[in-house]
């Protein structure tokens, strides 16, 4: 998968993730600041990351020879996240 306006970006699909997350806030559109930070527990023991904003991410997914436009809503920006996660 790739972000619609950029070169391909690594995306991890994680069925254990409870929400979509990105590690670069430039990927977000229609950004909303959160009233209270969202705390995300990671697989690393005892590590918690915080999100202070969320937005919409527009992606393109290639299936066979077809390019599909995809919009993901309520995607959280998580500074320090190793890679983008799609739930």
Automatic annotation (TrEMBL):
Q: Which InterPro entries match?
A: PolX-like_BBD
Which superkingdom, per the lineage? Answer: Eukaryota
Native source organism of the sequence: Culex pipiens pipiens (Northern house mosquito)
Where does the record place the region Disordered? 1-26
Protein name according to UniProt: Retrovirus-related Pol polyprotein from transposon TNT 1-94-like beta-barrel domain-containing protein
Describe the location of the Retrovirus-related Pol polyprotein from transposon TNT 1-94-like beta-barrel domain by residue ranges: 13-87
């Amino acid at each position: 998968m790739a972000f619609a306006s950029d070169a391909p970006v690594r995306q991890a699909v994680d069925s254990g993730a409870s929400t979509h997350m990105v590690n670069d806030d430039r990927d977000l559109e229609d950004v909303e600041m959160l009233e209270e930070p969202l705390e995300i527990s990671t697989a690393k023991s005892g590590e918690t990351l915080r999100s202070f904003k969320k937005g919409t991410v527009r992606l393109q997914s290639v299936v066979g020879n077809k390019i599909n436009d995809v919009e993901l809503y309520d995607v959280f920006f998580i500074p320090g996240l190793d890679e983008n996660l799609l739930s």
